[in-house]
Amino acid sequence: MKFSFVFPGQGSQSLGMMAAYGDNPVIRATFDEASASLGRDLWLLASEGPAEALGQTVNTQPLMLTAGIAVWRLWLAMGGARPALLAGHSLGEYAALVAAGVIELKDAVPLVELRAKAMQEAVPAGTGAMAAILGMEAERVRVICAENAQGEIVEAVNFNSPEQTVIAGHASAVQRAADACKAQGAKRAVMLPVSAPFHSALMQPAAEKLRQGLAKLSLAVPNIPVVNNVDVAMVTEPEMIRDALVRQAAAPVRWVETIRAMQSAGITHVYECGPGKVLAGLTKRCADGMAGAAMSDLAAVAATLAAVKG
Predict the structure, then answer these.
(1) What distance in Å separates the CA atoms of residue 198 and residue 110, rounded to the nearest whole number?
(2) Contact (Cβ atoms closer than 8 angstroms) between residue 92 and residue 9
(3) d(Cα 77, Cα 44) in Å, to the nearest integer?
(4) Whole-angstrom Cα Rg for the chain
(5) Which DSSP symbol is given to 203?
(6) Model confidence over 59-111: pLDDT tens digits?
(7) What residues contact 84, with CB distance under 8 A and at least 6 apart?
């Protein structure tokens, strides 16, 4: 079996999500390390919330990064083999890079907090929006966005599966495009409860702030190849990785292509490393014949271990 790990991004968080992994010292030590580098208690936030705080971008991004790495370390501590490839959805790419040894966790946690703040500040509250378009081909969604921009920005930003595309941009333009998609045959067009139009061109100011933050960090060559979001490429040169992370903030997440690239590289099984099951569910829809499973609790990690060992 040739398998890969993928790390979830924002949206997979839930109150008490780490309880599913039991009272494991590896999990707690990872949260302690991340909390120390951030100067606030991420374990308390994950365990007790409040839920509103959990959903704030500036908290969600460090929290989900830490959660993904905690499960990664648990996997290794349980004797799990290293996957052939890694990837992460949006924020999850940072967890993939930590797992690959490119960035240390203590550096990555403040970096994604900076990323979150920069994204939040890039667009005034209420100005931007995102919507999920379900049951419509991605290319058709692109065309409808272009037809409904009317001088504003609205574009496809998350290609999650062949029939699930997320659009983002100015709130009024997103609403127009979402309505048009529904009118032209989409099964559903759902406005998302997010605080900024992530991955749209409106995030360019955030990308520039991220560039400054990344410039201060030392990056290493990955010890496991990581398929990046922005180019669907496996780059090993630290400067190229840095550049891809900067561009990722204001560019689409090409998830369908990422899973298909893994399939082309011989991957047969994709395991989601961290709380939630979103990416596992998308895997089969992105590529025929690919198996996807989520390591969303301790039993699932053990089951994955058994499957990989055969």
Answers:
(1) 19
(2) yes
(3) 23
(4) 18
(5) G
(6) 999 999 999 999 999 999 999 999 999 999 999 999 999 999 999 999 999 99
(7) 2, 3, 4, 224, 225, 265, 266, 267
Residue 174 contacts residue 131 (beta carbons within 8 Å): yes
269-273 vs 291-295, strand pairing mode: parallel
- Of 175, 172, 91, the residue nearest 133 (C-alpha): 175
Classify residue 17 by its DSSP letter: G
* Gap between the Cα atoms of 141 and 13, Å rounded: 28
Q: In the beta sheet, which residues pair with residue 227?
A: 234
**The two three-digit tokens of residue 121, written as one number:** 């500040």
Q: pLDDT tens digits, residue range 211-242?
A: 999 999 999 999 999 999 999 999 999 999 99
Written as six digits, the tokens of 107 are: 């550096």
Bridge-based pairing state of the strands 128-134 and 188-191: antiparallel
Kindly write down the DSSP assignment for every residue of 225-257, as one continuous string. Answer: -BB-TTT--B---HHHHHHHHHHHTTS-B-HHH
- Just list the catalytic residues: 90, 199
- Measured CA to CA, the distance from residue 50 to residue 61 in angstroms comes to 16
- In Å, what is the CA distance from 125 to each residue of 52, 91, 120, 194, 197? 16, 21, 8, 10, 10
Start-end of H helices in the chain: 25-38, 42-48, 51-54, 57-77, 92-99, 105-122, 138-148, 171-183, 204-215, 238-248, 255-264, 278-286, 298-309
Pair 6, 226: CB distance under 8 Å: no
C-alpha 199/C-alpha 144 separation (Å) is: 18
User: d(Cα 253, Cα 258) in Å, to the nearest integer?
Assistant: 9
Residue whose pair of structure tokens reads 């007790």 in the numeric block: 48
Q: Residue 55's pLDDT is what?
A: 85
The two structure tokens encoding residue 67: 């959660």
Of 19, 12, 281, 257, the C-alpha closest to 159 is 257
